[in-house]
């Protein structure tokens, strides 16, 4: 479950066996590479050089601006599996769980899931980490996840 942490950690590149960093593995929704990276000691609270967090990338993938959960290329079930696994880790920090994603228009992970219209990811975030996900957390523009969701209806 999430722990208190002062801020992001920046990830180096490369898991030796899979040749993917944890951020790259979650971005591609590669469940095997994610598990390998985590078992090899990858930092679940890391951000890549673009400022993308592991949780944000698990939700959005590579091209978050164009993400479409209804398209098979989004790999919805794999993303949900990866997200479930990440959220079950004791080393996940509250910062990584709730911080605005600067490289994704400053939206929080919960706001990102709502904005991308991925209700299963919203549900997983809220149920896997009860009381730890900030439902009132604002993005860089002052919008909450509920505002993101209601703007799409």
Describe, in plain words, how this protein is organized in 3D.
The protein is mostly helical and 153 residues long. It has helices at residues 22-27, 31-39, 54-60, 76-87, 94-98, 109-115, 119-128, 145-151, and strands spanning 9-10, 46-47. The chain has one domain: Ankyrin repeat-containing domain (Serine Threonine Protein Phosphatase 5, Tetratricopeptide repeat), CATH 1.25.40.20. 41% of the residues lie in helices and 3% in strands. It has a two-stranded parallel ribbon. The longest helix is centred in the middle third of the chain and has 12 residues, at 76-87.
Short description:
By secondary structure, this protein is an all-alpha fold. 41% of the residues lie in helices and 3% in strands.
Helix and strand topology:
Blueprint: E1 9-10, H1 22-27, H2 31-39, E2 46-47, H3 54-60, H4 76-87, H5 94-98, H6 109-115, H7 119-128, H8 145-151
Parallel strand pairs: 1-2
How far apart the termini lie comes to 32 Å
User: Radius of gyration from the CA trace?
Assistant: 14 Å
Total count of strands? 2
What is the CATH fold-level name?
Serine Threonine Protein Phosphatase 5, Tetratricopeptide repeat
| Sequence stretches where pLDDT stays below 50 over 5 or more residues | 1-7, 9-18
Query: Helical proportion?
Result: 40-55%
